[in-house]
Amino acid sequence: MSFPLRSILLVLLSSTLAPMLPAQSSGPASQLTFNRDIAPIVFRSCSTCHRPGEAAPFSLLNYSDVKKHARQIADVVRSRTMPPWLPEPQELKFADELRLSDADMNRIVTWVEQGAVEGAPADLPPAPRFVQGWRLGQPDLVLKAEKPLILPPEGTDTYWNFIFRLPIQQTKWVKAVEIRPGDKQYVHHANILVDRAHASRQRETDPGAGFGGMEIRIESQVFDPDSHLLFWKPGTIPYVEPEGMALRLDKGTDLVLNTHLQPSGKPEVIQPSIGLYFTDHPATKLPMLLQLENDLKLDIPPGEKDFLVTDDFTLPVDVDLMAIYPHAHYLGKDIQAQATFPDGTKKTLIHIPQWNLNWQAVYRYAEPVLLPRGTTISLRFSYDNSVENPMNPNHPPLRVKGGNRSTDEMCHLWLQVLPVNFDAANGDPRMVLQEALARHNVEKNPADFEAHYNLGAMLQARGNLDAALAEYQAAVKLRPDDATGNNALGAALVQGGHPAQAVSYLQAALKARADYFDAHYNLGFALAQQDDFAGAVEQFQAALRLQPQDAAVEANLGAALAEMGRYADARAHFQHALLLDPTQPIAKENLEALKEMNPR
Amino acid sequence: MRRAKFCINSMWLGTVLAVLCGLATAQQALDLEGHAVNPFAAASGKPVVLIFLRRDCPVSGRYAPVIQKISNEYANRATFWLVYPDKTDSPQEIRKSVADYGYHLPVLRDPEHALVKLSRVQITPEVAVFDRDRQLIYDGRIDDWYIDLSRARPAPTTHELRDAITAATAARTTLAQKEVRGVGCYISDVE
């Protein structure tokens, strides 16, 4: 009795499905199936992130996973929201490009329109295999954030910085870093900065807990330019540095992980870890990060739909361009960088026609791009501060200027370059680059404190002290209360043999920042040069309280004490200096001198 | 003709087609114990708000604090239900998700999409607002927070759910739009 009814039911079901089949589509569109046509695309372009434990919110590992999101997938591949890849196709290819080909995109859309049919089991390619745990195997060193951040369930995006204190006792060379940002679903991107001077620790109110802030800058005491882009975004495969390009990490260095977090609707515990892979081979190739920017031009009136900011920098040396990282905030619209070669030909370095901060990324070139000396790199970023930009943080729009908060705007382009074809006898080509860049910035904006400061530092490093002094003086004139600027000017004056003039600047530095190690040290030195040894002892002691393990301060303190005739105290400090650093030359020499003076 | 055949076969398929055939009596959604529940029966004359969510939809998740805020605010004026239309979701999985997001609202499973069809919703998260006379006065997005799946505004600029509840509780206020599609995950993908 039931047989006939069942057969009717089957007929009915197929007839209701019929309109969904591609009868209306023109041309001989054959029936696409998941197993034959779609699985290879999904396995290659989706499953890397869409699987348990990864960044994407649901898995796409088999037919039923994909079927449950079929229409959504068709929508997001058609709009090119997924896979996330912002740049337009261009001649200079990027590595690990996620963009779907038009053919693959059309295949997915057609398959969904045809009813998302599974197909013959025999057609299904083998399931993708993924490495579990650390992608490159067990790291040589794993660091976990000391304290987790509890991400609140709601509110705007959060920017949090975790400080990792490196427990290494000697210099290490890093060939790869794997960032595990915690629960990947809520971390939009993460970025590691190398902090060699503990500058970030001062910003932690609760040690080990990290600190908030979207953009951070880290001061460096010596010429030690940032050289590596250590970036994580969903789907990032850890990058192994090319031969010879390892990153140097010293004892006492901190790594700062800057994260962009998005609330999920429920509280989330975010506790990132970092895995470091070392190599025995010190770096032989020294890349550096070039930054083009023009934040001071960012003064965008409300309602402005197409506010253009540019910067053009001409390279003083040949470089290989390895990677590029454009950065703007929520008003960013059309982001472009172009190279104009010495012969006048132009090539697009990157073009993102619809900027989206949420999917910002570092883009590495599939092959290094040679940019000869004389090539001009041009940045052209446009901004939309109208109501028509739905990402506009202000409603109604307000005037927006350059700044570090997410509601401020930015215009930055970082390029990782490796100087090539240079003669090492002419000095470090990175210094030539850095000086050219600082000079460019001073010309671009004479009121740019940092540009004057950096140019001063470059000139000083090159031994051109008079020119350096002029730049530092310009910097201090712009920011009379800046600790760093005053200290640098003071230090340069001491170096130039003007310790008396240096004192007031060094005191100003300490007025701005009482716990400024460098300024105490430099002031101690300046006072000692003027035979004010009691004053010098006081400053060296203050420096030592800030950094008790510093052998050079110990040696100088000993020397000042010896000058005052306090030989026993001096000896103790020299000995301690040698305990900290058995090669400390001043301590060694002075200890010998003491022995000769007083054999006791 | 086809429609009539459908109705005959509805005997076999259960309640889904009953709704399609216009027999608007049996909304056979289930509570987490598996009992059939009519969300309108318990409404005691108040407007009813059905909130459709998918556990695997990140936009559904991000809306949890918004949904809680609005349902708290209007708790005395309307009856709220969370509705999960994915038939592959087990009651245990739904219970866990509801607890994770800290909801204190009654929960329904809608495996046959009886409420989905009655409410005309297509996406999660979307809502359906019924007035005291059980008339559907609004279906669609909660607000315009999301622009598309990769972009959200810093804050919404429209508030369709609040407007609809206000209209449903007022005497006879008309809504500008009875239907505004949301951004999120298709319900038809889990049919």
Outline type of chain A: elongated
Give the helix level of chain A as a range of percent.
25-40%
The helix content of chain B, as a percent range, equals 25-40%
Number of domains of chain B: 1
Strand proportion of chain B: 15-25%
**Oligomeric state, counting identical vs distinct chains:** heterodimer
User: How many strands, what sense, and barrel or not for the largest sheet of chain B?
Assistant: 6 strands, mixed
Number of strands of chain A: 21
Tell me about the largest β-sheet of chain A.
Answer: 5 strands, antiparallel
Please tell me the overall pLDDT of chain B.
84
> Rg of chain B from C-alpha positions?
16 Å
CATH topology of the domain at 287-445 in chain A: Jelly Rolls
SSE succession of chain B: HHEEEHHEHEHEEEEEHEE
Biggest interface between chains: A-B, 37 and 34 residues
**Unreliably modeled segments of chain A:** 1-27
- Major sheet of chain B: order of its strands? 5-4-3-7-8-11
Defining key terms:
heterodimer, A: 600 residues, alpha+beta, Jelly Rolls, five-stranded antiparallel β-sheet, four-stranded antiparallel β-sheet, 15 helices, 21 strands, 32% helix, elongated, disordered N terminus, B: 191 residues, alpha/beta, Glutaredoxin, six-stranded mixed β-sheet, two-stranded antiparallel sheet, 7 helices, globular
Describe this structure in words.
Chain A is of the alpha+beta class and about 600 residues long. Chain A is built from 15 helices and 21 strands. Helices cover about 30% and strands about 20% of the residues of chain A. Chain A is elongated and about 100 Å long. Among the domains of chain A are: about 110 residues, no CATH class; about 140 residues, Sandwich (Jelly Rolls), CATH 2.60.120.310; about 160 residues, Jelly Rolls (Sandwich), CATH 2.60.120.230. In chain B, the strands form four sheets. Chain B has a six-stranded mixed sheet. Chain B has a two-stranded antiparallel ribbon with strand order 1-2. Chain B has a single domain, classed as Glutaredoxin. In chain B, strand 9 and strand 10 form a beta hairpin. Chain B has about 190 residues and is of the alpha/beta class. Chain B is built from seven helices and twelve strands. The N terminus of chain B is likely disordered. The interface between A and B is large, with 37 and 34 residues.
